[in-house]
Amino acid sequence: MLLIRMKLLQLLARESEKLEMLLQPRLYQKQLPYMRLATSACLHGKKKKVNSYEQVDQEKYKSLVCSVTSYKASAQTPETIFEEDSLLYGQPLKHSPSNKVERKTPKNWVSLINPKKRILPVNSNSDRPMKIALQKTQIPSVTRILQQTIPPQQAFYLERWKQKMILELGKDGFAEYTKNLFLQGELFHAALESIFLPEEMAAKEQGEDSAVSGYLSSVQHVLKDISEVKALESAVQHETLQYLGLVDCVAKYRGQLCVIDWKTSEKPKPFLQNTFDNPLQVAAYIGAINHDANYDFQVSCGLIVVAYKDGCPAHPHFMDPDLCSQYWNKWLLRLEEYMDKN
Any idea where the PD-(D/E)XK endonuclease-like domain is (predicted)? Predict the structure, then answer.
C-alpha cells in the first residue's frame, strides 16, 4: 500500500513539471509589459533616492529659488538691492544733504533789519524816487559774489545749457544771442523807469521800444498793484558787510514796501525756486538798503517779477518777511564763502 502511494506521488510530480514547462512561455509573454513598467518604476524610485536636492535646506533658500524661477526678467527692486548691499558691505554711510551748508548759522551774522537806523521825516522831494549812481570801487557787488559762489550743480546745468546753445548757434551766434538778451533787459528796465518817473522827468526818457513791448504787456497786471515808488535803478551799499548793488525798484506792492527785481525769461517760471539765485539777490539788496544811511526807510519784503517776451502774464513772486529772513541767512553764507576765497 505504501509503495502504491509513493508511485502516485512520483507520477503527479512528473506531470506537474511538464505542465509548468508548457505554461511558462505564455506567462512570460503576458507579464513582460508589466515587468517593464515595474522596472521603470523601480529605476525612477532609485533616482529619487539619490536626488541630492532633497538633502538641501529648502526653507533656507526659498526666497533665492523664488527670485530666480518666478520670472524671466530680473526680480530685483531698489529695496532688495539695498538689502543685499547691506548684507555684503554693511550699512552705507549717511551722506550729508546738499543744503546742509545753508542751514548753518553765519559766523558774522548781521540782522536783516537795522535796529539802529533812524527814520527821517518826509522831505519835500519825497515824491521823486531816489536814483543814486553806482560808483566803481573795490567793494564787491552782489552779482559778482553770487557768480563766484554758484553751487556746483547749478554751475553744471548752466554750463550744459551754454554748450547746447553753442552747438546750435555757434560761438559767434551765442555771443550775439547773449548780447541781445542783455540789451532787451536794459531796454525793459528803462521803459519801466519811464513809467514810474514823474511826468516832467519821464519826458526826458526814451519812448517805448518795440523790442520790449511784449515784456511791458506781460507786467501790466502787476503794475496795477504797485504804488509809492521810492527808488529806481539806485545804488545801495551795506556799510557793515561791505558789499554793494544796484536796486531795480523800491515801491509798495499791495500795500507792502518791497525791493522789486524785474526779470525777463523765455521760459515760464511759475515758482520761486525757478528763479535760482534771484531771491538771494533781493535779500542782499534789502539788507543793504536797511544798512545804508542814504535811505531813510527800511524794507522787509521782496518781489521778483518774471516777464515774458510774448506778452503772457508775468509771474510775480512775493517774499514775505519770514522768507526774506531765510534767504538773508543763505546770502550771508554765500558772502562768507566769497570772502574766504578772496
Answer: 183-295
